[in-house]
Amino acid sequence: MRIGLLTSGGDCPGLNAVIRSSVLHGIKSYGDEFVGFKGGWRGVIEGDYIDLPRQSVRGLSREGGTILGTSRTHPYNHPQGGPENMAKQLKRHDIDAVIAIGGEGTLAGAKRLADDGIPVVGVPKTIDNDLKATDYTFGFDTAISIATDAMDRLRTTGESHHRCMVAEVMGRHVGWIALHSGMAAGAHAILIPEHRISMDQVCEWVEQVHSRGRSPLVVVAEGFIPEDAEEALAGKGEEEDGRPRLGGIGDWVTRQIEAKTGIESRNTTLGHIQRGGNPTGYDRVLATRFGIRALDLVHERAWGHMAALRGTEIVKVDLAEALDGLKAVPAERYDEAQILFGR
Ligand SMILES: Nc1ncnc2c1ncn2[C@@H]1O[C@H](COP(=O)(O)OP(=O)(O)O)[C@@H](O)[C@H]1O
Ligand SMILES: O=P(O)(O)OC[C@H]1O[C@](O)(COP(=O)(O)O)[C@@H](O)[C@@H]1O
Ligand SMILES: [Mg+2]
């Protein structure tokens, strides 16, 4: 078969490892040929792609980013979008199937296209770990390791000055990155989108920690909404599609802590550092296994399905399952973390 790969949505360490393993498995096991669409769905719509021979994926599993580039092009709303044009482009370039690697937005597009007759399978990716149908997505472990390292560093400088240190991490709708990196770094408070909490409570934890001679570390997810606020802080404008650009909650929390407790405080926003650089060993393995399974799905002609992790197995799931709401942090997981907050 001749198969096209694409990466779409926010990038994430491990995308290249998926590309590599699909290509190697296809060439070695089935005699397939590969192309890579450039810039997500845009590449399919415009017939813009590169050939992916075996040597093009050499050494790729350790490289961050995506060699294909990514975009947030909408497969239907683009002027030349829609399944008829895509089917024509695939036919013109003799491409039999598409492997779409993306998050819930990209996979929603893939599902709709599969329902409209486009031969497409999915691979789930997101550093936020918010996709329901899979236990983990690659990129998450790398983000945790980067954030944990950053917080370890914040703690040594914080302790030296006896300051309260705040770290703002990614997590638009869910707090998995905040929960895991905060727990790993021994945070004294973790603030996540799923759990409303008052600044009075946060300040109580901060004061307890400060008064026993430690430097408090507060981890806040970008999508955290304080108890008396209406929505997440989005002080950085909007995306093309009108989606608000989140950010600023770390600064806001820091100013509140300083004003309410008088403890000198500093914010650090980790931002895209969490998404850059080489994937961890765990993410390389997960991404590699997803790529292999996705290629098998193509040969099973399992259009509208994706690879997913369940326990230690890589399984096939319907894209509809992946799109059935986000995987939020359960209340029990937050209660468990909360045992370690404050005093
Ligand atoms: N329901 C949908 N149907 C088709 N395309 C969609 C849908 N939702 C989102 N998209 C497209 O997918 C792109 C990628 O989604 P986004 O949420 O930004 O990234 P991710 O795929 O990482 O979740 C969006 O910018 C949009 O163009
Ligand atoms: O700066 P960008 O690329 O718009 O992305 C910001 C968003 O991407 C993420 O890192 C991951 O989101 P996706 O999984 O939807 O790609 C979010 O945590 C963050 O809100
Ligand atoms: Mg998304």
Automatic annotation (TrEMBL):
InterPro entries: ATP_PFK, ATP_PFK_prok-type, Phosphofructokinase_CS, Phosphofructokinase_dom, Phosphofructokinase_III, PKF_sf. ATP binds at G10, R72, T73, G103, E104, G105, T106. It holds the Pfam family PFK. Mg(2+) binds at E104. It catalyses: beta-D-fructose 6-phosphate + ATP = beta-D-fructose 1,6-bisphosphate + ADP + H(+). Residues 2-297 form the Phosphofructokinase domain. It comes from the Bacteria. GO terms for molecular function: 6-phosphofructokinase activity. It is an enzyme of class 2 (transferase). Residues 64-83 are annotated as: Disordered. It is found in: Cytoplasm. SUPFAM superfamilies: Phosphofructokinase (SSF53784). Pathway: Carbohydrate degradation; glycolysis; D-glyceraldehyde 3-phosphate and glycerone phosphate from D-glucose: step 3/4. The active site is at D128. The record marks G105 as: Important for substrate specificity. Substrate binds at T126, I127, D128, R163, M170, G171, R172, E222, R266, H272, I273, Q274, R275. Keywords: ATP-binding, Cytoplasm, Glycolysis, Kinase, Magnesium, Metal-binding, Nucleotide-binding, Transferase. Its EC number is 2.7.1.11. Its cofactor is Mg(2+). Catalyzes the phosphorylation of D-fructose 6-phosphate to fructose 1,6-bisphosphate by ATP, the first committing step of glycolysis. Homodimer or homotetramer. Belongs to the phosphofructokinase type A (PFKA) family. Mixed-substrate PFK group III subfamily. NCBIfam families: PFK_mixed, PRK03202.1. This is ATP-dependent 6-phosphofructokinase. It comes from Nesterenkonia lutea.
